[in-house]
Give the backbone structure.
Amino acid sequence: MTVPQPMAVREELLEPIRSVLSWMLGLRNADGAIVCPQHKLEHTGKSAGAIVIACQLAQVDPNADQDALFQVAREQSMRLVQRLEREDTSTCFTFRPGRHDPHNCSNSVIDGGACSDALATCVQVFGERLSHEERQAITHASVLHAQTYLRHCVIDKPIPAQKAWAMTGAAQAFALSGHEVLQLAVQEGARLLADVQHADGSYPYHPLDGQPGHPGASDVSAFYQSRVTAFLDFALEAAGLDRSEHADALDRGLDFLLGLQGPDGIKVGVVEAKPWYWGATHEVASHPFDVAALVRGWSRTGDAQYAVGALRAFRSWAAHLLPNGEPSSHEPGPGRRKSYQCPVFWAGHASWMARALPELERAMVEGATQPAKLKEPRVTWFADAGLVRLEDATVVAWVRGARPAGNAHHGSPLGGGLIRAVAPDGTELLPRCRLGAHQAGEWTGKVGRTSLARGWRCGRKELRFSLWLARSAWRAGRHLAAIGMPWRVLKEAVLAFAHPRVSTSFDRDPGLEMLDDGVRLTVRMAHRDGTVDPSGPVFTRTFRVNGQGVKVDETIGPGRPARALNYRLPALARDAGRGPERVTWRLGATGSGSGSLGG
């Protein structure tokens, strides 16, 4: 891969990246290890990100201290070299801790892909300043890991994001060594990714034929979508392969990513195979991958919408940084809590943001980051994900249809109707709570009695998982959270699923009909596990976009209504009306009014 020529990047782009690196380096112990304050260990695969950030800043920051950045890259690279170990009697060499320490919260393929990639980057950028022995050791570690481990993972790993991350390390090791087998592994990995990508551009987090632990893990993922596309694009280039042969897969991946993104740069986070990762219905931790994927897409195609999306993602990520440079996944607020992943993970991921800086700067210079004004309302259907995007000049909204079965930790938690609506200025028009029982704009009620059998069936495995979550919290010094974790999971994974509560947002297989100006769903009320009330009415839910926002029209068919049937209007609903079997309202950029329409 050709190393970008040095160029000056504007301060708006540089300062957030500098501050993240500074925060990471402030965690170093006397041996130079970046020790996670939450998990009390060195996340080697994330320390690798500090190497890449230092290398990138050395190339694009006109005020960079080149000697200091070189020392960071050299120090952390030599730490990675020392952490490469043979797997017992296996021929594989992997970077510790990988999967060997459960508190690392990662696995060997993710850590290894990042490490081989980062070591190669250090040689590419600072090779002339390294001693012969250092350069040889760093090169050897990158290539040895890729040769003995990553090239097999590219083929064998069923999870697309893990496969693609292995491809980045294998491709960079090929760039150093020229070993053809690594290039062939990347080539085959690209073919295998094409096999699992849906026609609408989305990827399953864990394909069903890969035997996920729960069917909900086969859902698409707003968090993982961009890294597959970014890694695939990067690996093809680094391995010297023709990206044009994969242009369709890359473009479809980017288009689905843009379909998830709002005008504030934040994606619709309840489209998520692993909702347990996040303490809110959105996250910005994946934005470094969003930026990398989108800016590479703009560079490859010249399509300005990708540059617009990249800048939006960058700015929303930067706005979530704490004053000391520590990344966060979301801002605190009602109904939100701490996310599972730690800030060291997110800081390491910022390396992909750093890599995007030259092209993002060029896009800004060329004016490609200025969003085009939407002239006509637009409706986009992502059929495989069951996702419809509605937008006009006043609102962007998403409607979710069918989605895989789920429980408290796996599979998108909400669907069967509107799952997010946001104004052009970023105002949330339809606040959502991932575990909320009475979502605005949804029909709720109760059917039957509490069923502990249903709750136990849905959540018994999650109780065992709660012990791991508790241990992780205890190690982080969050002792009260650790003590309360099993009880919290019992409530969310067992008791909530046992409850007689039903909602239209819990129906996992609604009928969907596309309209010229929107979408119509036929929905039944369902328990949290997706089991519908067969004797209850069918709700016909129509969502249209006409230039004045999203018009919602709800009608109730014949059938036995749920007990305590209720429909709560969104606080910003406008022009609301109610008949015996019909509710209508509109959601746009402005408006006021609230209330509850009982059954």
